[in-house]
Amino acid sequence: MIVLDASVVVELLTYGPMADAIRRELVSSGESFVVPHLIDIEGARALLTDRRSF
Question: Does the predicted TM-score (pTM) go above 0.85?
Fold first, then answer.
């Protein structure tokens, strides 16, 4: 089982530069993946922090 953190989820959702590689790795691993129960809050925080850096 793979545990995805907020940075990975944000990368996937925003089609960041590593998104394709992450997708390939998740698919090729054949393992299931889970996210922490606070992923929505952590993801929102990461998106806001990323947005403020522009």
Answer: no
Residues 8-48 pLDDT 10s: 999 998 899 999 999 999 999 999 999 989 999 998 988 88
Phi and psi dihedrals of 43, rounded to 5? Answer: -65, -45
**Residue partners of 18: CB distance under 8 A and separation at least 6:** 11
For the chain, give the DSSP string: -EE--HHHHHHHHTT-TTHHHHHHHHHHH---EE--TTHHHHHHHHHHHHHHT-
Residue 28 corresponds to which amino acid? S
